[in-house]
Structure to design on (351 residues):
């Protein structure tokens, strides 16, 4: 038994979200950048990618060539878009529903990194990704019919909410497992009334936005503890049967509708935390696709996040089933037998 489509509960993933690249800028000084402040810094030698690309890449790497990963989105008709399409094609992603928007640039993100490793992102809101709408998503309708009852629909930020609602609606109509995430600003704008999904993926800041909506105003010292934030966020997420929350060095949580579980961060050499939450989600999706319950898929997600941060880039080209197994062994991770079985080498594969 291993992590492959041959053992999968689901047979394909169809996703929408951001496709683009970015730059990392290292700031001098740890204090938070002021509204009118000028600050020196330097460009960092790191490759940055956007959400759909990251999640789709890792799901494909973990589940293999027989598990179609179908992307629906837009890039610009420019050199950046061509380069990204080439990388995604090399990774084996199905790009038939990725278009080129004339007159729009491929999505660009700027990540500001403080010396202590914390950081923030600024992302274009008028890029090619802004052209993705419900009509574009509808083009993938035949794929939903093809995998009815056996697919995973993944709706990620960096494309408009309307497009993500359309993809989730197709997932509902065709009995897909529906996975969604939302930015902090979207959660606040929606007042916590998020589109229906089966798995809601959050980071701690997004969970805090939900916690504030649940009545924890200001998040004082006690209420601001990560576990309290997660519990408060769950109080307002009435719809999803499953929730995951990532919190960097403070670990991650999963909720399966009955039990809340916490996993500490695994001890690894951290090169960059950018993209770790997306890797965590991809690992969890791969685990669910392989038939694991959420508590065990969460273990796979934690491993994927741990391996991801050992690279300075937001896609770690070394992340695969072997690297997850090696990380688990080195960290002496406590994993369920079924997770170890999924990570076991194929018969005849060298150890």
């Amino acid at each position: 038994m291993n992590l492959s489509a041959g053992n999968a509960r689901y047979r394909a993933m169809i996703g929408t979200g951001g496709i683009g690249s970015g730059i990392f800028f290292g700031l001098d000084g740890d204090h938070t950048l002021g509204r009118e402040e000028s600050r020196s810094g330097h460009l960092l030698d790191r490759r940055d990618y956007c959400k759909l690309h990251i999640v789709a890449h890792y799901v494909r790497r973990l589940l293999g060539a027989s598990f179609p990963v179908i992307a629906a989105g837009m890039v610009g008709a420019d050199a950046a878009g061509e380069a990204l399409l080439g990388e995604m094609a090399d990774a084996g992603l199905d790009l038939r529903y990725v278009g080129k928007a004339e007159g729009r640039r491929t999505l660009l993100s700027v990540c500001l990194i403080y010396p202590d490793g914390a950081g923030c992102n600024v992302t274009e809101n008028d890029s090619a990704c802004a052209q993705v709408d419900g009509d574009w998503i509808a083009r993938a309708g035949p794929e939903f019919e093809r995998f009815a009852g056996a697919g995973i629909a993944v709706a990620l930020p960096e494309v408009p909410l309307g497009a993500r609602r359309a993809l989730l609606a197709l997932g509902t109509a065709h009995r897909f497992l529906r996975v969604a995430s939302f930015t902090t600003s979207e959660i606040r704008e929606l007042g916590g009334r998020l589109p229906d999904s089966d798995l809601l993926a959050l980071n701690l800041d997004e969970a805090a936005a939900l916690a504030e909506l649940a009545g924890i105003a200001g998040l004082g010292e006690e209420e601001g503890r990560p576990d309290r934030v997660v519990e408060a966020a769950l109080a307002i997420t009435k719809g999803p049967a499953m929730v995951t929350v990532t919190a960097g060095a403070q670990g991650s949580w999963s909720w399966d509708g009955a039990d809340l579980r916490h996993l500490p961060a695994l001890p690894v050499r951290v090169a960059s935390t950018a993209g770790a939450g997306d890797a965590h989600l991809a690992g969890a999706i791969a685990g669910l696709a392989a038939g694991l319950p959420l508590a065990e898929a969460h273990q796979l997600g934690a491993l994927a996040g741990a391996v991801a941060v050992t690279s300075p880039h937001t896609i770690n080209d070394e992340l695969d089933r072997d690297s997850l197994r090696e990380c688990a062994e080195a960290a002496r991770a406590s994993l369920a037998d079924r997770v170890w079985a999924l990570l076991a080498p194929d018969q005849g594969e060298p150890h």
